[in-house]
Amino acid sequence: MTLAQRLFRTKPTERIVAEGGHDLPLAIILSLAIVTAVYVLVALAAVGAMPWTDFDAEGTEAGLASIADLAAGATWPGLIVSFGAVIAIASVVLTVIYGQTCILFAMSRDGLIPRVFQRVNPRHQVPVANTLIVALFISVLAGLMPLGQLAEATSIGTLFAFAIVNVGVLVLRHRSPELPRSFRTPLFPATPVLGAIFCVIVMAGLAGVTWLAFGLWMLVGLICYFLYGYGHSRLNAEVT
């Protein structure tokens, strides 16, 4: 059985335990540490190659490529950097698509959105319809919205979700301290509190149009929830 089949055939709690509830958080922390170190080293290399006051503020998208060209006195280093950026963007997009597909699958299974999002292929046990819907929606956004605004809209949504997760850690630790936990947040409660605060600080630095789009999207989500999700929610049915 493939990983995708295990993901979409087991319940969320069972899936976490099956895939390693202790190893996954450690892998995330280690990955973040490595990526942060690489980003810092790249920034130090860029500043070492050119004074930061000479950076082109209007051309930040190709900033590293330009710095590589100027530092080497040739064009091929910039091409390599640009090629790496394209590959990195493609991997990020695929990760977002896969993640959103899993989120919608879980929401549909919990009754918050229509059942079409949890339909899986009988042979491969993956949500084909869900994946196609997400891919079509993302393609339309990518074709109609400027890349900078789309990136900021993605960032504010991700930061808001991270802030909610940090708050959720505080709430769950207070309301349900007896729940089995394969991994406990270190330095609690400082870590989730600081995490939520930093997410809000970064969100505050985003443009006003990004906040407007975020507010409208949140409004659409709330309308969908109260028109459909609230009445079909499995959790709400269990409580009542």
Automatic annotation (TrEMBL):
Membrane topology, record value: Multi-pass membrane protein
PANTHER family documented for this protein: CATIONIC AMINO ACID TRANSPORT INTEGRAL MEMBRANE PROTEIN ROCE-RELATED (PTHR43243:SF24), INNER MEMBRANE TRANSPORTER YGJI-RELATED (PTHR43243)
Keyword Transmembrane helix part of the UniProt annotation: yes
Chain ranges passing through the membrane: 24-47, 79-107, 128-147, 153-173, 185-205, 211-228
UniProt keyword annotations, A-Z: Membrane, Transmembrane, Transmembrane helix
Subcellular location: Membrane
Protein name: Amino acid permease
Statement: the UniProt record of this protein carries the keyword Transmembrane helix: yes
Major localisation: membrane
